[in-house]
Amino acid sequence: MKILILGGTTEARQLAGALDSRGDAEIILSLAGRTAAPRAQGVPTRIGGFGGADGLVRFIEAEKIGMLIDATHPYADQISLNADQAARETGVLFLALRRPPWMAVPGDTWTEVATVADAAATLGQHPARVFLALGRKDIAPFESAPHHAYLLRSVDPIDPPLTVPNAVYVTARGPFSEAGDRLLLQQHGIEFIVSKNSGGEASYGKIAAARALGIPVVMIQRPALPEAPSAATVGEALAWCDHALTVAPALRAAKH
């Protein structure tokens, strides 16, 4: 069976490698192309969008994809909507690999907001030093709050930069440890963190560091995603695929 994995996450890379090692499926891993030099994936990889749900349908049909797995970032809601629609139209086996969100624990000080614009407004009028733990596409709303000093960390340089008088840019690729993020926050005198609730371990260091340092976090809630067969971990996804790869050939044989 040909399996298309919509990726860009650690889990997508791990799942693709595990399925590829089985030898009973052909894996294609698709990346959106937002990072200039993505890390090696270890399986055949395509980069770039499909052209919406219709384009994804055409790709599935042209490549004779038998299984579609949405293992994109929890905030990549548009591609998840496209994947759900394409799976329904083509009838391919479909799984969403969705890591659980972080949950606040004693010592955390979170203010949960619905949007990035809400996060910018929540910072208030008193000038503060803010770590924007967000992607490049999400930072523009903070130009409406130029009285804050911002720290931004990204894989690729942010170009164009924010049109604010005080911003520091750090280029780095995760995962990030709690110790490393604690040092980063202390070096820059950070007073607030703005973060998405991405879940997983790769970027949890800043959340643990904020707890240890008593720094409040403005947490942007996840977007609503379509209901679909889902797995919370790579292990669960592999178990689902094991079942699907066993049952699907038998169903095909029965039909013939």
TrEMBL record:
* Matches recorded under Pfam families: CbiJ
User: Does the entry feature the keyword Glycosyltransferase, yes or no?
Assistant: no
Q: What is its EC number?
A: 1.3.1.54
Q: Which InterPro entries match?
A: Precorrin-6x_reduct
Task: List the protein's name.
Answer: Cobalt-precorrin-6x reductase
The organism named in the record is Methyloceanibacter caenitepidi
Q: Name one GO biological process term.
A: cobalamin biosynthetic process
The protein's GO terms of the molecular function aspect are: precorrin-6A reductase activity
**Involved pathway(s):** Cofactor biosynthesis; adenosylcobalamin biosynthesis
Write out the entry's keywords from A to Z: Cobalamin biosynthesis, Oxidoreductase
Q: What class of enzyme is it?
A: oxidoreductase
> From what superkingdom does this record's organism come?
Bacteria
